Amino acid sequence: NPKKASIATSGLDEAFMVTDFGRIVYPEILRIIGNQKDPDAATVISGLSKSKKLSAAGGRAKIMRASREAGDIESIGTYVDHLREYHLLKEIKERADVISSKGTVDEAAEDVEKLREKLQRSRVTYKAQTVASLLPTVQQEIADMQDRSEDSAAYGIPTGFAEIDNILVWLAPGDYVLIAGRPSMGKTAMAVCLARNAAFMYRKRVGIISIEMNSRSLVLRLLCADARIDLTDIRKGKLDSDDIDRLAESFNRFREIDDLLVINDSVKDFRDVDNAIDVMFTVHDCDMVILDYLQN
Predict the structure, then answer these.
(1) What pTM value is reported for the model?
(2) What ranges in 155-186 are assigned the alpha helix state H?
(3) Coil, strand or helix: which one is 251?
(4) Among 43, 30, 22, which residue's Cα sits nearest to residue 2?
(5) pLDDT tens digits, residue range 178-196?
(6) Residues 6+ apart with CB under 8 A from 191
(7) In this structure, what are the phi and psi dihedrals at residue 133, rounded to the nearest 5 degrees?
(8) What is the rounded distance in angstroms from the CA atom of residue 38 to the CA atom of residue 139?
(9) Contacts for 267 with CB less than 8 Å, ≥ 6 apart
(10) Is it the case that residue 268 has pLDDT exceeding 90?
(11) CA 98, CA 96: separation in Å to the nearest integer?
(12) 288-292 and 260-263 as β-strands: parallel, antiparallel, unpaired?
């Protein structure tokens, strides 16, 4: 599709030219597209053979491998971003060697400033979309919400608290909800209750990431929320027989589900948070992730 190819290649001109492979293969792909043909692997190989550039590009095997690894038209933007980032990191390493060999501080400072400006420009990744292009997705979301029954939780996750659900209308996909309050007002307890309700009441997979407390403390909080026991009573050894019975029941309930996950040992600061959230969603397939906490 020449129109789609034009959209895709508009972002590739600079990105592909950063490698020897790209400098040879990419112009051939553009030439094939310009002739209104499909730039599949066989056509590219044939064109490079005729121009005697196939060996310089790495041969038939490399072209076939690149063809298999290539993404589809919808993922081309992400691919371009990854390629540019790879090239930028490579350039940083090369520039670092050059800067370290400069004779004076002023000469080195000039190169450092140029590199800083380029890095700053590379971080600007805003991409605008037209309202018209978003309408089909929004229309489908509206249809999905109308199809669900009143309590099916087919779209979003109820909190388990009726008054909150009436305001938020559940926690919908893509929502970012901040629980705020002064110290010791119950923010973590509230978040733990949300996790417990989502997993037990609505069979949703929930990940909890903590920067503040260890995994055992999180599990203890979950047990207390489920058994309706004050954590202070456990720590002071003041549980009565009813408390112990409810706690035992909670232990049994938690043993029967695999929908609550905890990460804390590897999350030391906010540099690790992004990776931990990604692991929860992509590796463990969580429906909701709770981060405790954002203060400081």
Answers:
(1) 0.52
(2) 162-168
(3) helix
(4) 30
(5) 998 888 888 888 898 899 8
(6) 179, 208, 290, 292
(7) -70, -20
(8) 33
(9) 209, 210, 211, 273, 276
(10) no
(11) 5
(12) unpaired
- Looking at per-residue confidence, does 24 or 145 come out higher? 24
Question: What residues contact 28, with CB distance under 8 A and at least 6 apart?
Answer: 39, 44, 47, 48, 51, 53
Tokens 């501080």 sit on residue: 105
Amino acid found at 88: L
**Confidence class of residue 40 from pLDDT cuts 50, 70 and 90?**
confident
d(CA 262, CA 206): 9
Determine phi and psi for 4, rounding to 5 degrees.
-65, -40
Pair of tokens at residue 88:
């930028």
Question: Cα–Cα distance between 83 and 256 in angstroms, integer?
Answer: 45
114's CB contacts (< 8 A; 6+ apart) are none
Amino acid in position 131: V
| Residues contacting 58, CB < 8 A, separation 6+ | 21
- The string of DSSP letters for 2-62 reads HHHHHHHHTTTHHHHTTSHHHHHHHHHHHHHHHTT----HHHHHHHHHHTT-TTTTTHHHH
Residue type present at position 113: E
User: Which pLDDT band, with edges at 50, 70 and 90, does 7 fall under?
Assistant: very low
